[in-house]
Amino acid sequence: MPAPTPFGAWPSPLTLDLLVEGSVGLSFPMLVAGQAYWIESRPAEGGRLVVMRSRGDGSRAEDVFGPEFSARTLVHEYGGLCFTVHGETVYFSNYTDQRLYRVEPGGEPEPITPEPPAPRAVRFAAPVVAGGGRYLIAVRERHPDPDTPSGVVNDVVAVPVDGRSDPTVLLDGHDFFAHPALSADGSRLTWVTWDHPHMPWDEAEVWCGELREQADGQPSVVMRRRLAGGSSESATQPKFGPDGSLYFVSDRTGFWNLYAAGADGGPDRPLAPMPFDLGAPDWVFGTSSYAVGHDGTVLGTWFDRGFCRLGVLHPGADRFAEIPTPLTEIANLRAADDGRSVLAVTGSASEPLAVVRIGLPAPRADGAPSIEVLRRAREDTVGGSYLSLPEPIEFPTDGGLTAHAIFYAPANGDVQAPEGERPPLIVSIHGGPTGMARTVLNYGIQFWTSRGFAVVDVNYGGSAGYGRAYRERLRGKWGVVDLADCVHAARFLVDAGRVDGDRLLIHGGSAGGYTTLCAATFTNVFTAGASYFGIADTMVFVEETHKFESRYTDGLFGPWPETEDVYRDRSPVLHAEKLATPLIIFQGLEDKVVPPDQAEIMVSALAERGIPHAYIAYEGEQHGFRRAENVRRTAEAELYFYGRVLGFEPAGPLEPVPIAHAEALAR
User: Fold this and answer.
1) What is the DSSP letter of 2?
2) What is the pTM (predicted TM-score) of this model?
């Protein structure tokens, strides 16, 4: 047996380089005319996003355009679906200037939208081919003044693909639009809309209208009618089936379930009621949790304690028949144009994400569907005894309620832990806060568990995936419910004897960064923490953030400025006299969601209090780090920081991090 090695100091085969080398992000697959397309995010190329094409003839997938282009939209700042295909012509939003481009096979991209009056002042998302290929329908976002969120205007437009005329407005008059989709014959358009102060998971409406051409040849949408949503109902993901039937997802029963719209204005009907969420919050464009085949067969996925389940709903059936698979993540479902298969991004607790093609099961067919892997996020993986598998846990929290989390124990077959010692725990907090911790293989978690840390990924009250009532636990209580659930998760694991109560750490990004800063300020539970682009002053945040989230805090804290006292009470930086927890803070200097001054005011507060801290800011990074060198540096710096705070020497060479007031660590 190897000599015992302290937790945290375990040598791991999951090196800093393996966090990013040979790894890509995958999203938004589609199959058109026998050719598969998807978006590939490449950390090694500065986070560039590329549209990929696989011709289905066994040849290697190819880039649709060269390195001077990147397919990414900044609508809502979070972006999402930014390309579509007609025949072999690809249309995409280019990151640098946010214009829409057309690229033919073997050709160079050409812009089809006018040059904006200011850089990135006009943006497009979720494009759909319409008019027999003569124009695209897309969500547009205009920024007359880049520094004034209230001046941003969103609408839906028709964009001529020849680029010879300006876009035509089809839909306007609402604060936000999403999910434009056409019927197979191109005669009907459906979409989602919502207005401030709501977020789309609070109240959103599904609409439908007739797409007509006027006498001058310009398209218009007439005979508009609302199908669902509004009044404490979130309706989303409208899609037409091949026969013209219109489907959508609504949480009117307390869970996002699937519905079919009534014909000719009649009542809609639930297709497969269940106490699970078939759907997720619309943080980005293009979310899709179901797909409809040529015969009306529906393939859908839902969440069950952090795990994705896959099922098939055959015509005439009243429930999804679950399909047993090892998959724990199934996203971006889109029916292939052959109507017989579905493309998706899938993964499991032991396998990384992949773009796959899933064959639709025939009615009354037994067994699992065929799954063809088109592209894996990484080919070389670390597994076996180095892999910590997710364990869903439920634990008691405030108010006699139960909360949820995913626990990962330390795992490394090459190491023996010291007898009687318990591992340090990292409490990991997802963003959002209306997000969720998932169970697909995540090297960002395995990096820590293979070094001897335990990790608990908390789905605190307010998280998605557990129904509307669970999401609404956070209403008016952000900074309270999330913080309490994270503390209770840690104490639950301490009481169970699974982790060391004297070595509790906490980290998170964005909203998770805010909860981290709250934990460091309002509790004395944690030994250290790491905040990635976290909110420090909620009042500054609400005044400076972008349009999409500018009224988000109305539901999380209360209307601004009427409830200013709540914002003050829950702003960590305004209670700096309570700070006592060492922190390392990471920030992108081009972040428009949580601007850099949020990190800088917290760093100043730490300095004034004489608390050990470190601050690392990245040029060219926005909300979330995409460049390989920055992903590596963030993990390395956080590990180094924890080693200094907890008093262990991490395995392998690490570039030191300057720690202000490091002398206090010796005390």
Assistant:
1) P
2) 0.94
